[in-house]
């Protein structure tokens, strides 16, 4: 990673073949989001003079431990890592004195966390602990069993917030971009603070890792151990904290806020199995545009009006590019005509000709020049158009995966989707406190809209119903299984183990570019997640 030797990604789909900036990959393990009173700072290791970090931080029972992964210029192999993790688990369970759940402070609002961090920094012990966390490669969080029934929705939320302060909520450090979660109940995943990179960068990194593990597990487990064991492993080091009464008060406040936020989140993960992107492509339509229309139809059926809609557009065609906004809530979308086939908006956004980043730059330039805020940024039309009630994102993957994140406004929805060949995975989120929103109702309207759109396409084109075809195929498969029941398969001894469900979670800031400036005006308690399921 430090040699910047990764092969260059190239764009697919629209404007395909263009090289993409790889800078985001080099931020996965080398960056940190430092809280500030006015805005946060993205700290990234740029200089080759600074030594590369050689340790990770392991969180266990709300305690944090330093685990050196390079000793005497040699990387620890998998067996040594397991030995060290087992030591940490025993050390965490043997602590007699109550340990303050310091990680809870990072779940608070950014301004509140910045203030709490400044209080922690008054003590040298705390400064040393913060320094070790901020310079580490990543976190590994060893969670206790959640005690909840396992489902895609509960698994995603448990990865994201750990179930709140009463469970594993303090077993996180949300400023670090990469946190690998391993639960005692088998619930595993990755939590990411994705200021430095887009969700798809984390997804591709996770896909690579999971495919590597799967190939080794199915092929040759012995290949996991790649290096000789280090003869003498130093004991992991527990990070210590000196918590004044002021810090204790801040911890209580953070725990209360996290508890309310956990209770407020209304998330619903749904796998739409009637058809997928192959059916949409046969209608000569863009799957993304088609699904965008379905999402807007669902909102219209729920609430009887159209709203400002955000869809992220990657800007990696530009050096250090991040995202801009595809404003898909067009009159054409309401009319169900051009938005299904016209890809002009997408092309303009990914080519750097959208309006949001341009206006954002002008607004921030005026602020830095200490100018009075220009009238356009006070106008009702501008304010309404940037109140993204429907915040959407497509995350296409090569393995089955779903992505989850929270609403970016109190009365809004977060809607992320992954179109696969014969199904589409949606995650819809809202807040219980809003009397206007309901994730379950939205999903029902979304399913009905997708079915209605399929019927409309079939009536226009005279094509078969893919849902009916799927049911017929399943019936034929069941008949075949019945006919062959009792016959022992020759390959029964070579059956593969069931792969675990692996969520990949994305944390704040919201993917809306107006929320990525660090401006406290837009720093709400936003939850973003991205969950992965390998079949």
Structure commentary:
Keywords: Acyltransferase, Neurotransmitter biosynthesis, Transferase. Its EC number is 2.3.1.6. This protein has two domains: 23-265, Choline/Carnitine o-acyltransferase, domain 2 (Chloramphenicol Acetyltransferase, 2-Layer Sandwich); 273-354 and 387-480, Chloramphenicol Acetyltransferase (2-Layer Sandwich), CATH 3.30.559.10. The protein contains 14 helices and 19 strands. The protein has helices spanning 78-93, 110-120, 124-134, 152-161, 199-218, 245-264, 277-282, 287-303, 331-335, 344-350, 356-368, 380-385, 439-461, 466-483, and strands spanning 31-34, 41-44, 55-60, 63-68, 70-71, 74-75, 139-143, 178-183, 188-193, 237-238, 265-272, 309-314, 323-326, 390-394, 401-405, 413-419, 424-431, 504-507, 528-532. It has a seven-stranded mixed β-sheet, with helices on both faces. The chain is globular and about 70 Å long. The protein starts with 30 loop residues before the first strand and ends with a strand. Residues 337-342, 482-502 and 507-535 have low confidence and may be disordered.
């Amino acid at each position: 990673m430090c040699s910047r030797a990764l092969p260059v990604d190239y764009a697919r789909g629209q404007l395909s073949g263009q090289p993409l900036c790889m800078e985001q990959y080099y931020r996965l393990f080398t960056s940190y989001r430092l809280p500030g009173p006015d805005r946060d700072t993205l700290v990234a290791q740029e200089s080759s003079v600074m030594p590369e970090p050689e340790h990770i931080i392991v969180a266990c029972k709300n305690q944090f431990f330093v685990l050196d992964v390079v000793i005497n210029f040699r990387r620890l192999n998998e067996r040594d890592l397991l030995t060290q993790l087992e030591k940490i688990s025993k050390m965490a369970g043997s602590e007699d004195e109550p340990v303050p759940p310091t990680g809870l402070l990072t779940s608070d609002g950014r301004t509140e966390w910045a203030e709490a961090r400044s209080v922690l920094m008054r003590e040298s012990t705390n400064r040393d602990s913060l320094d070790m966390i901020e310079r580490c490669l990543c976190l590994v969080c060893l969670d206790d069993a959640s005690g909840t029934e396992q489902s895609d929705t509960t698994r995603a939320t448990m990865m994201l917030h750990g179930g709140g302060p009463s469970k594993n909520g303090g077993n996180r450090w949300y400023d670090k971009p990469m946190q690998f979660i391993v639960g005692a109940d088998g619930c595993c995943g990755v939590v990411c603070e994705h200021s430095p990179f887009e969700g798809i960068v984390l997804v591709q990194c996770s896909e690579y890792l999971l495919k590597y593990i799967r190939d080794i597990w199915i092929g040759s487990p012995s290949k996991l151990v790649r290096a000789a064991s280090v003869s003498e492993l130093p004991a992991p080091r527990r990070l210590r904290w000196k918590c004044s009464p002021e810090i204790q008060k801040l911890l209580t406040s953070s725990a209360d806020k996290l508890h309310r936020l956990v209770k407020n989140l209304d998330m619903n993960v749904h796998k739409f199995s009637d058809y997928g992107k192959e059916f949409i492509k046969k209608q000569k339509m863009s799957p993304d545009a088609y699904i965008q229309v379905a999402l807007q139809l669902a909102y219209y059926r729920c609430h009887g009006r159209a709203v400002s809609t955000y869809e992220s557009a990657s800007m990696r065609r530009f050096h250090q590019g991040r995202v801009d906004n595809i404003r898909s809530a067009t009159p054409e979308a309401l009319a169900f005509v051009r938005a299904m086939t016209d890809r002009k908006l997408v092309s303009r956004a990914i080519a750097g000709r959208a309006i949001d980043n341009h206006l954002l730059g002008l607004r921030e330039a005026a602020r830095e020049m200490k100018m009075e805020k220009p009238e356009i940024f006070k106008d009702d039309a501008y304010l309404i158009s940037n109140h993204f009630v429907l915040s959407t994102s497509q995350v296409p993957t090569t393995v089955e995966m779903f992505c989850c994140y929270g609403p970016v406004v109190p009365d809004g929805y977060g809607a992320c989707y992954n179109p696969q060949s014969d199904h589409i995975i949606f995650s819809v989120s809202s807040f219980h406190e809003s009397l206007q929103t309901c994730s379950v109702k939205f999903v029902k309207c979304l399913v009905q809209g997708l079915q209605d759109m399929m019927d409309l396409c079939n009536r226009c084109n005279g094509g078969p119903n893919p849902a009916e075809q799927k049911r017929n195929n399943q019936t034929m498969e069941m008949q075949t299984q019945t006919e062959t029941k009792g016959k022992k398969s020759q390959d029964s001894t070579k059956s593969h183990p069931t792969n675990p469900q692996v969520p990949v979670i994305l944390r704040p800031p919201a993917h809306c570019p107006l929320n990525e400036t660090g401006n406290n005006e837009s720093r709400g308690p936003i939850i973003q997640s991205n969950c992965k399921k390998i079949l």
